[in-house]
């Protein structure tokens, strides 16, 4: 009994976070449909975790909440996946007709719920609340067969949810890997856009899903697992808090491309993104009319922009900014970098930054952080990573070796 106040407090706190975050997401969802998906994801979680509160305060709705928890359960993973697609899309993401397939399991779960709600109340109460299956045995043959069919279908949906969750978690991991590669084709600094919080969230969610899945399967096949119920409440609270906090803070990684200049070829970006996902490098520029001479000329302009105009000093430098500077299509620049120069935009810019940093380390007494910020890096960690990649030394090692060679 001493656990009840703690569990109730966690449950109410989690529901409050969901209600507040959902309201905020709906307010900012105009023109950005991915926020609707995150709101739906949070509301689905709320539908599932609100059952203890409903049981305590409005028990007359307990059966309804239990029935609706099945479609809600099947909505969580696809909504999180589509939200991730929206965050990582190179063009403004919109829900398409083909995306409806992700909601088929939830729709099936909704049909099960709809049929269940048409059953006489005493049978639903006996199945879901009191678990008195002997009441079902006394039901007319038709109703009894419908109930058993619903129970089997619901159990298969729960097993399907386990596989569904694992599949979408895998898809999200692959999507994030491709997305971080695409970032390096467009931005010189990516650490604020890499969505590492989603990786940590997946680990937490994965642990919660595995725990819940094992509990559900064993509970249905054998007997309930004896565990501290506070653990589950804390895990759900952490998942919801993390998802709400970062979901409200996070903007799409390529958001600044959505309203960029007319020179930005959004169709080309979309085609490039699709080819990255399928792994087809030849398809990426198959519609391009860029000639070898044009590519060589663009390469010279890029060299001048970096070496003479010192464009790399801009900490927020991006491919569209470079394109505007040299009056060239971003897609042509991307193609030139990949096919002619054999380097990603991110690595090209950081190469010039590291070269400039080497001179500062040799000729000044500036701190490593000051040098990093002076040459265009946004953080010390990003500077260390880039510097070691290009020189195989840390900035401290490089500075020390240079001074040793001088003496």
UniProtKB/TrEMBL annotation:
InterPro entries: Homeodomain-like_sf, HTH_AraC, HTH_AraC-typ_CS, Tscrpt_reg_AraC-type_HTH. Keywords: DNA-binding, Membrane, Transcription, Transcription regulation, Transmembrane, Transmembrane helix. GO terms for molecular function: DNA-binding transcription factor activity; sequence-specific DNA binding. SUPFAM superfamilies: Homeodomain-like. Residues 300-401 form the HTH araC/xylS-type domain. The chain crosses the membrane at residues 6-27, 34-55, 61-83, 103-126, 146-170, 197-218, 230-248. Gene3D superfamilies: Homeodomain-like (1.10.10.60). The keyword DNA-binding applies. This is HTH araC/xylS-type domain-containing protein. The lineage of its organism: Bacteria, Pseudomonadati, Pseudomonadota, Gammaproteobacteria, Alteromonadales.
């Amino acid at each position: 009994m001493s656990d009840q106040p703690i569990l109730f407090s966690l449950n109410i706190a989690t529901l409050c976070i969901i209600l507040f975050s959902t309201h905020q997401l709906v307010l900012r969802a105009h023109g950005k449909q991915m926020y609707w998906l995150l709101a739906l994801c949070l509301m689905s979680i709320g539908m599932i975790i609100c059952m203890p509160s409903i049981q305590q305060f409005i028990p007359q709705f307990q059966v309804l909440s239990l029935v609706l928890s099945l479609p809600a359960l099947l909505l969580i993973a696809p909504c999180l996946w589509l939200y991730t697609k929206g965050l990582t899309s190179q063009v403004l993401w919109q829900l398409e007709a083909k995306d409806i397939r992700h909601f088929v399991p939830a729709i099936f779960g909704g049909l099960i719920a709809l049929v269940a709600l048409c059953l006489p109340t005493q049978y639903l109460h006996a199945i879901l609340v009191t678990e008195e299956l002997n009441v079902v045995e006394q039901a007319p043959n038709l109703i009894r067969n419908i109930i058993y069919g619903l129970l089997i279908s619901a159990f298969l949906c729960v097993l399907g949810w386990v596989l569904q969750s694992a599949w979408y978690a895998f898809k999200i991991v692959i999507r994030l890997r491709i997305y971080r590669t695409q970032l390096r084709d467009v931005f010189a600094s990516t650490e604020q856009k890499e969505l590492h919080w989603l990786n940590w969230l997946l680990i937490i969610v994965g642990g919660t899903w595995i725990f819940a899945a094992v509990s559900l399967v064993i509970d249905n096949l054998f007997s309930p697992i004896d565990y501290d119920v506070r653990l589950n409440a804390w895990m759900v609270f952490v998942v919801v808090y993390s998802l709400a906090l970062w979901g409200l803070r996070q903007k799409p990684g390529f958001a600044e491309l959505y309203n960029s200049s007319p020179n930005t070829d959004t169709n080309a970006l979309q085609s490039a993104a699709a080819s990255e996902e399928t792994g087809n490098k030849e398809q990426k520029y198959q519609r391009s009319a860029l000639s070898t001479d044009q590519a060589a000329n663009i390469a010279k302009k890029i060299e001048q922009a970096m070496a003479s105009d010192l464009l790399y000093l801009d900490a927020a430098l991006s491919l569209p900014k470079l394109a505007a500077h040299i009056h060239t299509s971003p897609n042509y620049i991307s193609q030139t970098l990949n096919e002619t120069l054999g380097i990603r935009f991110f690595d090209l810019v950081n190469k010039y930054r590291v070269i400039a940093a080497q001179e500062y380390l040799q000729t000044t007494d500036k701190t490593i952080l000051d040098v990093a910020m002076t040459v265009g890096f946004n953080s010390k960690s990003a500077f260390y990573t880039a510097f070691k990649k290009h020189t195989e030394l840390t900035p401290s090692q490089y500075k020390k070796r240079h001074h040793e060679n001088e003496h």
